[in-house]
Amino acid sequence: MVNRPGSLPAWDPAATMTPPLRILHLEDSEPDREFVSQALTGREIAFEFVYATNQAEFAAALESGKFALILSDFTMPGYDGMAALALAQEKCPDVPFLFVSGTIGEDRAIESLRSGATDYVLKERLERLLPAVRRALRESGERTRRHEAEERFRLMAETIRDVFWVTSPDGRELFYVSPACEQIWGRPVAELLADPTLWLQAVVAEDRPQVDAALAQLAAGSEYRLQYRIDRPDGSRRWIEDRGYPVRDPAGELKQALGVATDITARQELETQLLQAQKMEAIGQLAGGVAHDFNNVLTVVIGYARLLLDRETLPPDVVGPLTQIFTAGTRAANLTRQLLLFSRKQAVNRRAVDLNQIAGDIAEMLHRLIGEHIKLKLALSPDPCPAEADAGMIEQVLMNLAVNARDAMLDGGTLTVASEHVTIADPAGYRHPAARPGNFVCLSVRDTGCGIPPENLQRIFEPFFTTKEAGSGTGLGLATVFGIVQQHQGWIELESAVGVGTCFRILLPAVPQEAVVPARQPAKPTTVSGGTETILLVEDEAPVREFGVAVLRGHGYRVLQAGSGAEALEVWKWHGPRIALLLSDLVMPEGLGGVELAARLRQAKPTLKVVLTSGYAHGSTGEEFHPPAGTHFIHKPYRPQLLAQTVRDALDDVFNH
Description:
By secondary structure, the chain is of the alpha/beta class. Helix content is about 40%, strand content about 25%. A six-stranded mixed β-sheet has the order 1-3-2-4-7-8, sandwiched between helices. A five-stranded antiparallel β-sheet has the order 10-9-13-12-11, sandwiched between helices. Strands 15-17-18-20-19 form a five-stranded mixed β-sheet, covered by helices on one side.
């Protein structure tokens, strides 16, 4: 085996930058080798020859290195060209193979071409050799580039999660589909290629008409883009965004169609959740406004009813109806409280609490609530589950979820209340858009009831939405849960299957265990003391203002009235020195609310005591309201005793919160 370089032309400076192409030449005749070398040397292509004279040298050369071209005689002692061609195709099938022979006949030449030879040149016509080599190298380069492009496409198709497809012009005969189809459609590619209608059979029946219309559009030569749903063999459903494009030949005739199908299920779910969140926010704003106005009315109804009931001289025939008025007003106040909880406008007294302790303390009440036919099971974490929360509101969440579960288990079942610690590194596995990295505590309520139908899942947190019979529920239970959890910067993960049951998982931000403080025991009711101090009462609702005046004067106080912040400033000009306490609504017309009014009056008199009141716990900016330091807050509707006690506490600098 001999190496022999060809010469480079001096006139081609670019050629000096390119390594010579290596040619493996199988030829036992040295003169013939020289003739072939001379036919290719000194031309525009530089070559380096590697010679083999027999089978062993040829096989060794194929193993030792790469070649751009193989030239071979057809007939040699002990070896023939067809055997060499077969070996070359086995070892390096992409390398062009040319026969250069003086003995090959037409029949054998045709046979060699059919067997994979690139071309053949007769030794007596070596002037054809260079053009044949040029053509072979050009075609080899094109094949290489085509194979590289195909390989890049294959790698892209197998790596990208989108489905690439190639079909007949009408989209019904499938020529190619990328492997991602298995992950999205849930069927092996081989199945889809064997039965191209399977992808179309998976389309949800309601979406088939628009898919058929898109395929007709494609067959007519127009591209399409649409979204549809498919049902996978495992029963799950996916949202697909599909784009199809017609492919024409140079003459403009439709030949194929190609396109990309993308699984947009996660995006669709996020969009749905966002729309639902916006809808709930709008409903919450409406509910909060209604509840605020209603609480003003209820303050008057409940307050005067209580004042009258506290009289000992009422005729017996009046006590009963008056008690009914008071009871109905209290029930209405509870409804507005739930509306405020849903709209996240209820006052929140957050502190570090152990969710395990709350669940354990309320277990007996839950047991009575769900009845003897349902088994209550606690599966609480062995470690404390501390969160910054309003304990009363968390109890409300558990009670509402327990009632919801009870109504789903009319024939009995099991209600499980569980707690656990959850650390989220990647929120992608969670359905709710509020999910985020961090440490959380999870309180879950699981039942073995009838489950929630899929068509109702998006609406269950809407206020007044209920599937119960008329008169069996207010439709505010789950809406209240939603509002409370939102107000605690948490979220709800919901899982439900018809006939299996439902699980609500509530995730709240965790706090350090050392932050938890024991709950205070409620103070025993005592008789409210009155006083003789002067109070400035500021309230824009006249009936509420008149009720407050009646209560305070009934406890001995002197009361000055104002219907707005501006009126209060005018009253202050004349009576400021003798006013001991400001009792003001939080939000009032003319732009001067309770907080701003108190701040201005305290500039003039720092010792002024302040009690603020409101129908909901939000200020004029809409943000959650936290009373300033040294300020008392009372929520409407309030009872006479609570108003009198709060005023007395403020005057005596007694703070119970």
